[in-house]
Amino acid sequence: MPVTYEQVKAVAAQLYGSALKKVPEDTKAALVRAHAAETSPVARSVLSMMIASARRAEEADRHLCSDAGIPTYFVKIGTAVTLQGNIRQAISDGFDHLVATIQPPILKHVTNPLTLERGHKGRSMPLVSFDLVDGADYLEIVCSPKGLGAGRWAALEIFSFPTLDVIERYVMDCVLKAGSQHCPPVVIGVGIGGTFDVCAKLAKQASLRPFGLINPEPILADMEARLLDAVNKTGFGPMGTGGDTTALAVHVDYAASHGFVPVAVCFNCWINRRAGARLYDDGRIETFE
Q: Where do the Fe-S hydro-lyase tartrate dehydratase alpha-type catalytic domain residues begin and end (predicted)?
């Protein structure tokens, strides 16, 4: 039984709604751990409000933030899955259905960069990227709406044969430039290598990695620990109120490159929006965060 247009449309809408109204479980747990470790009374109060807001949004079926972001989906297509219908169109139609039905309604954040006109539709929207997974019998969709606070401060620079120290200093430059304007505590994704476009995608996908997964590359695992410590020593704290908790995690990935080495840095705000699903040939649909 193939994965159908209707299934993909329904899942695309469901994932976007979930990402707007539910903080992932691992992120809520990270906020609780941060609250327990935080030494600043003001920061602890802010973290308490975040934890309570996450719980209340789920209970009341309400948005966590008025900035619903722009529709961004990452799709992995298994080479053993059978598809029926126009899959990209299904994702677009799923977002349209969400816009028409979600309560409360979402604001118009899709912006034409040439005219600054805002709406729910626009060229290339939703933003969808596709990858192949050899041998997999599923279609995987991950939705990660990107709002202004976190999206504004993503950055990329290309270096020539950089050392690890140069890379880490660049990441910290990006962190200091962003300050607290990306609604911390944040998750930081870092991409190293590849080409300009590949590196940016590495950073974004790294930011979606669930908490608690140890980086299999020892050099990067050590880098993540150093950077997380350095970021939290900046003292920006939750929502810029000061304290020990500016980031919940730093996740780094890399690809082989030329002598020119791009380094990309991106941020997810404290809500850490991500929701995913796998659609199988046998009709099963498994959701995950």
A: 12-277
Sign of the dihedral defined by the CA atoms of residues 98, 104, 109, 115, in that order: positive
Q: Rounded to an integer, what distance in angstroms lies between the CA atom of residue 278 and that of residue 136?
A: 11
Is residue 266 within 8 A of residue 182, CB to CB? The reply is no
**Is-cis flag, bond preceding 41, omega within 30?**
no
Is the CB of residue 244 less than 8 Å from the CB of residue 192? no
Retrieve residue 220's tokens. 């990067």
Q: Which SS3 state, helix, strand or coil, does residue 12 take?
A: helix
Each residue of 5-61: pLDDT tens digit?
Answer: 999 999 999 999 999 999 999 999 999 999 999 999 999 999 999 999 999 999 999
User: For 4-8, which contacts have Cβ atoms below 8 Å and span 24 or more sequence positions?
Assistant: 4/84, 4/85, 5/84, 5/85, 5/86, 5/87, 5/89, 5/90, 6/85, 6/90, 7/279, 7/285, 8/85, 8/87, 8/90, 8/91, 8/94, 8/139, 8/141, 8/279
- The answer to whether the CB of 134 falls within 8 A of the CB of 79 is yes
Helix (H, G, I), strand (E, B) or coil at 18: helix
Which pTM value belongs to this model? 0.95
User: Which is nearest to 234 in space by CA: 285, 284, 186?
Assistant: 186
Residue-wise burial string across 248-287, b where 16 or more C-beta atoms lie within 10 A, e elsewhere: bbbbbbbeebeeebbbbbbbbbbbbbbbbbbbbbeeeeee
User: Peptide bond preceding 126: is omega within 30 degrees of 0, i.e. cis?
Assistant: yes
On whether the CB atoms of residues 236 and 184 are closer than 8 A, the answer is yes
CA 223, CA 164: separation in Å to the nearest integer?
8
Q: What six digits make up the tokens of 289?
A: 């965060």
CA 258-260-263 angle, 5° bins: 110
Could you tell me which CATH number the domain at 3-22+64-147+273-288 has?
A: 3.30.360
Q: Measure the CA–CA gap between 127 and 105, rounded to whole angstroms.
A: 20
